[in-house]
Amino acid sequence: MHSAARIILSSLLAGLVLTVLPLPMWAKSLRPEWTALILIYWCMALPQRVGVTVAWTVGLLQDVLQGFLLGSHALAFGIAAFLTLKLHQRIRVFPLWQQALSTLLLLLVIQLILLWVRGLSGHPDADWQYWLPALTGTALWPPLFLGLRAIRRRFQVQ
Amino acid sequence: MEHTIKPLFRQGPSIAARVIVLALFSILLMALDQRQSVPDPVRYMLAAVVYPIRLVADFPFKMGNVVSRELSGRRQLMAENERLQAQRLLNEARLQKLDALEEENIRLRQLLDSSYDIGASVLIAPLMRIDLDPYSHLIQIGKGVRDGVFRGQPVLDANGIVGQVDKVGPLSAIVRLTTDPSHAIPVRVNRNGIRSIAVGTGNLRKLKLLNLPNNTDVRVGDLLITSGLGGRFPRGYPVARVASVTTDPGPAFARVLARPTAALDRLQEVLLVKRDQQAVQLASTTDETNSPPGKQPRP
Question: CB-side exposure of A83: number of CA atoms within 13 Å?
């Protein structure tokens, strides 16, 4: 029981590190929302363990980490986690590519909320590249899902 | 019986209620943060919690630097040492002259009854190589409240103004660059004292000058220095060099773009200006050209 929490926590921390890891200039706009993807996976696989509160907390940490307005990622991740929890019984049985599509929707919701926050706090609007992370996130979903599932089964996280 | 079946629908307060509460809370937090009134202890605590994550992300680059320094040859080091020695000599010679000029400047200013910022001391801070919000120009530095860093502190590099401290944690801080779209800095043209405001454009090599009329005397190559108005940046530090002046008869103002003198995309270390005791007095609204014309190439 105890190690399960530890594994979930370390996967989320790894996501946070990946979020701020320096990338070359051209790759910056391609960086997926790692933490969001990992959160979506755990919400879907273990909804009784990872829910809106965890997602909200991780979002808050990401805000501090990246210098965003405090609470913006928290809000976006909380709502995404809520949607995932509501739909998890359906998404879980989808084939992988359909899962990836529903992940795309969730990622777009997150990006949209962040765009609203950005607009309200007076930042200039973003260009088309702003939406690229959602696409790379979708493309990365299948390998990420398989990897995290392997970890979950290997360590019997439940 | 220890191993009970997990109840399928056990949820404390319903998820919907929980998400609504959290959403309201995050909106409150955003409003507070926008007004910069999140209490300091909360901010410091959060920054302290994420500090290890920053260190981990920064680690590969730090190691890379160490390795490349270890591997750089003796000859290379000798050459660098020689270059630095020469540079230091030159700088020191220049500094001698500066002392005299400064003295003279203070005397003249006393005649004019205006204030003067006496040489401020600086703190050197290393840059942490991590990526922040991709749509703002922010950098992370490895000094924080414990080293005396404060919000709004001016940040320089060897060539000019870099930006100002935006968020502080106990051991690190986030600096907003002058090129960030939400940043503005009061400047004046070194040559003739025309004042303006340089606003970030979101491009690391471009600043935009506001409210310069079409017939203004600003030329390509003019140096822009901080005017000290607004009281946040000390006066007289270079900010940018005018890169292009476009005058259209249509719009009311000229479109003037400038290129920051600081190497914003190649920063390694930055200097934080310690504001000691001087409050900037605004008695100095007379815009006399106080700086010596041009730089002496030779001491």
Answer: 16
